[in-house]
Amino acid sequence: MKKPILILFIACIASLLLLQGCKSKELSVADIAKQAKFDENIQNRTYTFVAQSALPMGFPAVNLSPGYTVKVDGDDIDVYLPYYGRAYSAPINTTDGGLKFVRKADEYTMTKKKDKFEITIVTSDKTMGETKLYLTIGKSGYANLNVREVNRQPISFSGIVEIGDE
Fold first, then answer.
1. CATH number of the domain bearing residue 126
2. Model's pTM, two decimal places?
3. How many domains does the chain have?
4. Does residue 143 lie in a domain region?
5. What's the CA gap between 42 and 60, in Å, rounded?
6. 28 burial class (0-12, 13-18, 19+ CB within 10 angstroms)?
7. Coil, helix or strand for 23?
8. Does some domain include residue 34?
9. What are the counts of helices (DSSP H) followed by strands (DSSP E) for the chain?
10. What is the dihedral of CA 153, 157, 163, 166, to 10 degrees?
């Protein structure tokens, strides 16, 4: 007598868990609209990458305080990031450390894959040379940024992407 009741109880629990799992995967209209707005801002080049941690080559990861960003507004790229790693030439001004510049993008390419955007931004400057930014943005807003410069070791950052009204 107890065995059929136990089997029935386990079947009910399994059914509830299965239904709960199916329900959580459904997207609401608001979620779909928010995702469409996010995708539109990425494609229109109006977003901000907010760095949360730095991953320098050959060093441990560094958690960052708020305020380190890469702002993209059309062709204007505003970069304010720290730098950890080996530099092959030092800046003349000691306050010019880190990755700090505002430039126009010489090249901007974007590829949208199933669940992510892959963006390459190339800028150049007479004093610092060419800087390449490789940004991968997931549909949830989490992103990875790889920075390559001529006179420094590469560095990576992980963080989130924000759009205008978040």
1. 2.40.128.410
2. 0.79
3. 1
4. yes
5. 30
6. exposed
7. helix
8. no
9. 2, 10
10. -150
- pLDDT truncated to tens, each residue of the chain (166 aa)? 556 666 666 766 766 666 565 444 566 888 888 888 999 999 999 999 999 999 998 889 999 999 999 999 999 999 999 998 887 776 666 566 788 889 999 999 999 988 899 999 999 988 778 999 999 999 889 999 999 988 889 999 999 999 875 5
130 in Cβ contact with 123 (< 8 Å): yes
Q: Which of 84, 78, 97 is nearest to 55 (CA)?
A: 84
Which domain does 87 fall in, by range? 44-162
Return the number of other C-beta atoms located less than 10 Å from residue 81's C-beta.
21
Tell me, yes or no, whether 123 lies in a domain.
yes
Distance CA 158, CA 71 (A): 15
> How many residues belong to the chain?
166
